[in-house]
Amino acid sequence: MHFETIAQWQTELTTAIGAADSGAELEALRIRALGRNGLIHDIMGAIKTAPPGDRRAWGQAANAWKQAVQTALDARQADLARPRAAPADFDVTLPGYWRGLGSRHPVSQLIERAVGIFRRLGFTVAEGPEIETVHNNFDALNTPESHPSRDQQDTFYLADGQLLRCHTSPVQVRHMQAHQPPVRIVAPGRCYRRDTADATHSANFHQIEGLYVAERVSLADLKGDLAFFARALLGPDVKTRLRPHFFPFTEPSVEVDFSCHVCGGQGCRVCKQSGWIEIAGAGMVDPNVFRAVGYDPEAVTGYAFGLGIERMAMILYGIPDIRLLYDNDVRFLSQFGV
Ligand code: FA5
């Protein structure tokens, strides 16, 4: 090897380094020059084979070569890291590209918020499957064979005899079968009904089931807890009212209304001029349900409720039609971005 060869390598390398356009290109050049099998390796080899009198000069040349290449690499690296001036034909006043961030669906947001409020009351979260047995969805919930909700026109039955749950109440059954009292759970989830879609009905919607079983739980506890929930969700002025109703799995049964959040109870389109919005079904757990899950109805009492999430979203956000929640129109959904 001659001194001219390493001088030529240096010229070639520093030119290439000066023209490198990316960190990756620069790294490739560094490896070619200074890597374990790079040119420096050949230069070091030449020192060993040089006549003893020339070795000192070769050593100095090798060091100088290495330093020159490293300096060129560092300088180019610093250049590349510096913000570059825009090319002459680049219009810096043009608007940039909008990269919209996604956000959680308003139904998911509301479930999270509602569950958070019930946690403050000591509830924990339970879950159950969307495909249920007829036993859990109807029989264990004291629903007679003749009850209209069992009808093929109301419930989606599957070929294997199971069904898509029409409410979250079967989670009560599952939970009580697996746990002894006291229990205090909420169970949010999806429900399915053969309801014709309109402004307030969807064939696929969400409920939050609530169940509190212990000694001496009363209807007053139910009303107090739901009133707390309503105020925490909608503000201190919201009122709660219970209307007598019938469910096979509760006795007595009630429907729960919240005063309309949109008009403050004065009457508007959302509350159909009544000042109230039906939000849930509820009641005291029927002794037959306790028997079906192996609880002693003489020893414990309990309340249960099923809140409609979409209906709550409608009052909370003033949404006039439930179908807006399922159209997946980004213009609608982006209003709920957090
Ligand atoms: C039930 O589903 C009972 N399982 C609730 C219950 C639980 C009662 C525990 C007693 C004890 P209901 O069918 O009324 O009840 O439905 C409860 C809520 O779900 C309604 O108030 C409404 O807010 C919502 N809901 C019912 N059907 C639909 C639907 N098709 N679309 C949207 N929301 C619905």
Q: What would you note in describing this structure?
A:
The chain has two domains: 3-81; 106-336, BirA Bifunctional Protein, domain 2 (2-Layer Sandwich). Helices cover 39% and strands 19% of the residues. The protein has helices at 3-19, 23-34, 39-49, 55-81, 106-120, 134-137, 170-178, 219-234, 287-293, 309-317, 330-333, and strands at 124-125, 131-132, 163-164, 183-192, 204-214, 240-247, 250-259, 276-285, 301-308. The strands form two sheets. The chain has a seven-stranded mixed β-sheet with strand order 1-4-5-9-8-7-6, sandwiched between helices. The chain is elongated, with a radius of gyration of 36 Å. The model has no long low-confidence stretch (mean pLDDT 92).
TL;DR?
The chain has 338 residues and is an alpha+beta fold.
Number of strands: 9
Terminus-to-terminus distance: 68 Å
Q: Give the mean pLDDT.
A: 92
Indicate the CATH architecture of the largest domain. 2-Layer Sandwich
Number of domains: 2
The shape is elongated
Q: For the report, how would you describe the main beta sheet?
A: 7 strands, mixed
Q: Output the number of helix runs.
A: 11
What Rg, in angstroms, do the CA atoms define?
Answer: 36 Å
Please estimate the helix content.
25-40%
